[in-house]
Amino acid sequence: MSFYHSNNTITSGSTQFFGRSKMAHSLGETLFKVAIVSDTHVNEKEDFSASPYPANAEANPRARYVFSQVNQIDPALTIHLGDMVNPVPELESYGPAADNFHAIAADLKAPIHLVPGNHDIGDKPVKWMPAGMVNAEFIALYRKHFGKDYYAVTHEDCHFIVVNAPLMNSGDPAEAEQATWLEHYLSDHAGERMFVFSHYPPYISDPAEPGSYDNIEEPARSWFLGLIRTHKPEALFSAHVHNFWYDRIGETEYYITPSTCFVRHDYSEMYRIDGGDQKGRNDAAKLGFLTLEVRENGHVAHYHRSYGATLPEGAAAAPPVVPRPHVKTGGLAGVFVDMRHAWAEELAVAPSGAVDEFRRKRARNDYPIMALWEMGLQGLRVPVQDLCDPRIRRRMELMTRLGHRFQVYLYGMPDTAERAALTEHAALVDRLELVLNWEEIDALASEIKALKAASDLRIILSRVNRKDGAKHTGSRFNHLISHGFTLAERDELQALMTAQPGLVDGAQFSIPRSASPWQTARQLADFAESSGAVPVLYVKSTEASPAEPFEDEVANAQRFAEAAMAGIGFGLDVVLDTMDDADRGYFTRTGLVDRRFNPRLAGELLSALALETSLGEWSAAPGDEAILERDGQTLRVVPASKAGQRGWICPRSGLRGDEGDTPDTALVLQIG
Questions:
Q1: In this predicted structure, what is the pLDDT of residue 16?
Q2: Which of 3, 385, 443, 560 fits as disulfide partner to 602, beta carbons 3.0 to 4.6 Å?
């Protein structure tokens, strides 16, 4: 492959960070939308598949459902990222499957542009796979059924560039033709807005990862990545792996998108829970499609979960997509979540015997990021070890550019390595939480001041394990590590801040399950006004006993929502103690998402809150009940049984109901 030339050295974790400048300006108005669909795997017959998995047999009605939803978002165009059909080109069923795909896609109102996938045009060169590799015969068959296999279309001065990824490294004469065309096209349109679409991703988690069934191998990978880095298209979208990942290649945002049909369940290794339906293949919450909002100064990629819903032939339209926020455009700016479990973890995916057999694959779980985006959660509380780990720190860099904020915490004063990381990478730290023993604070004052001077960090103080803290409940001993101030310690804290002005910028208060976030936030707002201190409220889902479970999802969702509303209403930053379920060990409880990082009711409620409160200034209504008000309108969370008394928003469907309507979820946002 002498036509692939690259002087780029691929190294992991080398992306340069430019602070927050990427998100410092507004994205501007939406110019138009593009629907992005992938891996529909349409079959030659309705409700049938040659695959042994039941999920595959649902491919056609699942594709029909998604295309119906695509129509309702009214895109300017739709792009399919490949694997339109399930039968591969050497099978007689390929043609009938292609006909079925076109029949389903015929209902689309906007033009659809197709990207060749390995099921459509043949596998990339993988000699140990049983399916046929891309060749001249398969290319001709693809062009007969689907049209061009590499090309570009332009809409409102934006270029949408489709590449034939299976062709790379194949040695077919068409490979050199595509390479020459792509190099010239990117060069000819330098400085213009470009989006690139490839079925195979160049890599999954690491640009230096070994070749596998799931990525583009060398030397084409370095060549392709070199073009991306040189010409800086706005985004690259890939598919094939039926799961979600996000990264940056230089200045290019890089997305790997899920399927409409089934999940590649070898990657179920990323979750510490059983495989689930069909051993993970039918993890329906991970199925869906994307809307690419092309804006004046950038883009937003919204993911829509279809939950594997189906639409039979001749049926009425599917329900509209659920509206969700995105951190790029706002959200719950003052709500942080404690990332107790690893949120950027790389795991080894075992050889499956189906698509890879001869080595393990490394894969990073990016579903926590997807969940944060669709909940509108900008803030993450993470330990200082994340900042000190170069691999995780790179993820922090990427997320800060998107608009995320990090509260970094540690017990005691930082050691030499931690201090160096905090100083060198201070732009990644929204604030530093120092958890200190109260008796040692005066002695540490000079060290705290030196750290502030060296790093220019905002520091909030958290108190740990008071001597008079309760360790017993009745006859039982409570093994509880207590951190954060209590309301009873406000005077003590005020005395410290008066004696040591400028030592810290604020303090973190903590409340147990039995305390109301709303009532506590009201008192902290008064404290902030009278003292000038900046309080942060840490809201626990649990009580003193580590053996007491809190697994009532509805009750937990109501508490999370009350905490978020308290932050909005009183202008405080709040920290929620649970992202994904704590389903083993101590202090078990449900979170915002489950252990597969699929939404729980709590996460859906926060998402609906983020959208509803994004416009206008909401404030806390008088009284002890969590109610927000704005311009004579009120907003509260109520049980579904009370929803019919006024208008409401269903957090699961995003639909608005009128007085007298009945929602199909346990809690709703009621609008008065």
A1: 27
A2: 560
What DSSP state is assigned to residue 208? Answer: T
Written as six digits, the tokens of 78 are 């739709």
Place of tokens 């339209």: 317
Question: In the numeric block, which tokens belong to residue 546?
Answer: 């580590």
C-alpha torsion 60→61→65→70, nearest 10? 10
Structure-block tokens of residue 547: 């053996």
Q: Buried (b) or exposed (e) across 181-196, using 16+ Cβ within 10 A?
A: ebbebbeebeeebbbb
Q: Which residues contact 361 (CB under 8 A, 6 or more apart)?
A: 204, 209, 212, 214, 348, 349
| CB 325 within 8 Å of CB 374 | yes
Question: To the nearest whole percent, how much of the chain has pLDDT over 90?
Answer: 85
Cα separation, 663 vs 652, in Å, equals 10
Query: pLDDT per residue over 549-598, tens digit each?
Result: 999 999 999 999 999 999 999 999 999 999 999 999 999 999 999 999 99
| pLDDT tens sequence across 648-661 | 999 998 888 877 77
CA distance 639 to 555: 10
Distance (Å) of CA 263 to CA 244, 299, 380, 432, 580: 10, 26, 28, 39, 20
Residue pLDDT, tens place only, 391-438:
999 999 999 999 999 999 999 999 999 999 999 999 999 999 999 999
Give the Cα-Cα-Cα angle 492, 497, 503 (nearest 5 degrees). Answer: 135
pLDDT the model gives residue 452: 95
Cβ proximity of 593 and 580 under 8 Å: yes
8 A C-beta contact, residue 600 and residue 594: yes
Side-chain half-sphere of 530: how many Cα atoms within 13 Å?
11
